[in-house]
C-alpha cells in the first residue's frame, strides 16, 4: 500500500514579495501554489497511489470567489477518475469559521467534521484514518488526546493539524507532545501546520511533510509531499517528492574582496549560477546576504538603489527566471578604514556611542517594535519582520551608519 501525505497547500497564497517584482510574469507566480498541487495530483495518478491525505490548510484563507474551490474540485475529480480516495482536514487557515463559501466535494473525498474526532476506513485498503477539522482559527486544546482508539487488524493513521510542542515562526494550535500521539497506538501520524519537513519519530513515523510551495523567503529550500510505503502492516519507506514551482533561497556572498559595488558582480554571479543549477529548472527567488569585512561596505550599505540595480542585472544574466527578492548588507568596514576627516570622525564616534548605550538601544527597539506592531502579520512574515532582536538591531544600526556616511562624504571621498 502506498499513500501520499501532504499538508499546508495554502492554495492562492499571494507570494506577494515576489509578485510585485515580476512584471508581466506575475500571473505565473501567483499560480505557483495551484501548480504545485497539480504536480501532486499528476504524481498520484502516474504512480497509481492508493489514497491521498491532506493535513489541513488546503486554502490560504477565505475565498475571494468560488474560483479557489472550483480549482480544488477539478483536481479532486482527476483523482476520482483514477480511483484514488482523499481524506482531508481543515486547519487554522481554512477552519470552518474562516471559509464562508461552500462547494460539495467529489464523492471520493472524505472531509473530517470539526465537532469531534472520528474515523474513516479507506475503501478497499485496510486502513483507518482518524482525524478532526478545526472549527475556528484558534484551537488551544489538545485534539489528539480525544482521537479514537486504533482499530484492530487495520493500518491506523492519525491526521492532525498541530503545532505539536511549538515551533519558531508558527503560532500554537492544537498543542500536544510526542507521547500524546504515541499513546493512541497508531501506525503513522500525518501532521500539518509546520512548513518545514520534520520527522518527530521514526517508529511509528510521526511526520510534518512541510508545505507544497514556499510562500516567502522564510520558507526556503525544496518543498513537496511524502509518499508512504506500507508492507506487512508497517511503514517501510518514506519518499520525499518535490513539486514546488518557485524555489526560495538565501545566498550568502563574501564581499571582502570588493572595493566597489561593481566588484561584487563576479561573486554574486557565481553564487546565482550555482543556485540556478540546484533549482532544477524552477523559478528561483533569492535573498542575497552580503558578508565580510569589505572596503566597499560604505557604498554597499549607503547606495541601496545602485546595489539593487547591479544585482538585478547579474540575476538577469544568470537565468530567465531568477529574481532578487531582497538584499541584506551584513558587511562591515575593514579594520584599516580610510580617514574621514575630523567632522565625520566625530559623527562616527557619536553614532557608535548611541549603538553602545543600552538605554538608547532600548529606546530604539521600543520605537521599531511599535512600528512593526502596526504591520499586518502576513506582511511581517513575508518580509522576515516577525521580530527584531539584538542581532537585527545591530545590523540596522550598522546600515544606518553606512548610509549616513555615504551621503555625507564628499564626492572624492574613498568609497
UniProtKB/TrEMBL annotation:
InterPro entries linked: Calcineurin-like_PHP (IPR004843), DNA_Repair-Maintenance_Comp (IPR050535), Metallo-depent_PP-like (IPR029052), Mre11_N (IPR041796), Pesterase_YhaO (IPR014576)
An MF annotation (GO) of this entry: exonuclease activity
Keywords: Exonuclease, Hydrolase, Nuclease
Pfam families membership: Metallophos
Entry protein name: Exonuclease SbcCD subunit D
Boundaries of every Calcineurin-like phosphoesterase domain copy: 1-196
Gene3D superfamilies documented for this protein: 3.60.21.10
Signal peptide interval: none
Top-level lineage group: Bacteria
CDD domains (alphabetical): MPP_Mre11_N
Amino acid at each position: 500500500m502506498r499513500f501520499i501525505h501532504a499538508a499546508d497547500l495554502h492554495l492562492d497564497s499571494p507570494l506577494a514579495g515576489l509578485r510585485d517584482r515580476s512584471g508581466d510574469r506575475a500571473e505565473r507566480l501567483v499560480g505557483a501554489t495551484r501548480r504545485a498541487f497539480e504536480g501532486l495530483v499528476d504524481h498520484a495518478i502516474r504512480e497509481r497511489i492508493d489514497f491521498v491525505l491532506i493535513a489541513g490548510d488546503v486554502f490560504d484563507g477565505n475565498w475571494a470567489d468560488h474560483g479557489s474551490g472550483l480549482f480544488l474540485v477539478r483536481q479532486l475529480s482527476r483523482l476520482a477518475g483514477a480511483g484514488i480516495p482523499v481524506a482531508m482536514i481543515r486547519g487554522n487557515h481554512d477552519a470552518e469559521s474562516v471559509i464562508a463559501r461552500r462547494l460539495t466535494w467529489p464523492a471520493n473525498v472524505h472531509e473530517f467534521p470539526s465537532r469531534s474526532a472520528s474515523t474513516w476506513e479507506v475503501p478497499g485498503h485496510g486502513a483507518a484514518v482518524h482525524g478532526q477539522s478545526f472549527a475556528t482559527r484558534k484551537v488551544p486544546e489538545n485534539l489528539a488526546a480525544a482521537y479514537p482508539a486504533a482499530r484492530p487488524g487495520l493500518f491506523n493513521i492519525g491526521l492532525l493539524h498541530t503545532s505539536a510542542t511549538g515551533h519558531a515562526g508558527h503560532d500554537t494550535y492544537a498543542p500536544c507532545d510526542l507521547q500524546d500521539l504515541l499513546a493512541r497506538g497508531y501506525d503513522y501520524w500525518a501532521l500539518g501546520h509546520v512548513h518545514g519537513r520534520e520527522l518527530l519519530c521514526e517508529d511509528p513515523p510521526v511526520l510534518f511533510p512541510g508545505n507544497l510551495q514556499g510562500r516567502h523567503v522564510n520558507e526556503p529550500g525544496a518543498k513537496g509531499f511524502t509518499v508512504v510505503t506500507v508492507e506487512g502492516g508497517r511503514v517501510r519507506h518514506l519518499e520525499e517528492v518535490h513539486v514546488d514551482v518557485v524555489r526560495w533561497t538565501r545566498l550568502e556572498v563574501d564581499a571582502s574582496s570588493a572595493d566597489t559595488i561593481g566588484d561584487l558582480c563576479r561573486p554574486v554571479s557565481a553564487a546565482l549560477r550555482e543556485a540556478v543549477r540546484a533549482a532544477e529548472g524552477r523559478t528561483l527567488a533569492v535573498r542575497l546576504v552580503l558578508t565580510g569585512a569589505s572596503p566597499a561596505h560604505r557604498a554597499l550599505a549607503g547606495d541601496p538603489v545602485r546595489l539593487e540595480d547591479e544585482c538585478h542585472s547579474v540575476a538577469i544574466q544568470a537565468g530567465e527566471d531568477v529574481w532578487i527578492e531582497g538584499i541584506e548588507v551584513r558587511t562591515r568596514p575593514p579594520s584599516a578604514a580610510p580617514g574621514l576627516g575630523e567632522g565625520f570622525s566625530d559623527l562616527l564616534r557619536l553614532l557608535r556611542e548611541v549603538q553602545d548605550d543600552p538605554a538608547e538601544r532600548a529606546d530604539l527597539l521600543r520605537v521599531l517594535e511599535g512600528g512593526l506592531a502596526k504591520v499586518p502579520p502576513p506582511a511581517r512574515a513575508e518580509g522576515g519582520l516577525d521580530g527584531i532582536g539584538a542581532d537585527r538591531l545591530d545590523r540596522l544600526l550598522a546600515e544606518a551608519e553606512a548610509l549616513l556616511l555615504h551621503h555625507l562624504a564628499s564626492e572624492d571621498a574613498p568609497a
